[in-house]
Sequence to fold (147 residues):
Amino acid sequence: MSSFRVKRRPYTLALVAVLILNAAASVSAGIFSLDEGERLSEQIGHAAQQLRKSSASEMTITYMPKKGTDQHYNVGLAKVRYQPHPPYEPPYPGLTVTVEKGHSGFCTYHVKYVGVPRNLGINKFQASTEILLRKVGDDEIDVISLR
Fold:
C-alpha cells in the first residue's frame, strides 16, 4: 500500500500571505490614488506654502500628468479670491484637469493657499505646464499665469 504524503514547508504560509497582501495593496492603491485635479491642486498648495516662507516674490512650478505628456490634456483654474478658511464663498472655486490617459479630476485644495485673479486655462500636448505664483500684498499669493 502506497501513501502519498505532501510535505509542508514553513515558508508556504508566509508566501501565500505576502501574495494576498500584495494584491490587496495594489487594489487599494488604485482606489486611493489622487486624480490629476487633486495632484495639481496639492502641488500648487505646497508650492504656495514654500513661497510664503521664502523671500522670493515669484515661483514657477511645472506640472506634468502622471501618465506623461504624450497626450492631449487641459488645465483650467476658476477665478477666485484667496480663502484660507472654508467654507468657500461663491463663486465656488475649482481647478480642473482633463487628460486622455489616467484620471481627470477637479479639486479646491489650492484655494486655502492661493487666489486666482482671473479664469485661466491651457491646452497642452507633448509639453509640461508652467504655473506662475506671485506674492501680492502681505500674505497673499496668486496664480498669475499658465504657460
In short: The chain is about 30% helix and 30% strand. The chain has one domain: 34-146. Residues 34-146 form one domain. Strands lie at 58-63, 72-77, 95-99, 105-107, 120-125, 129-136, 140-146.
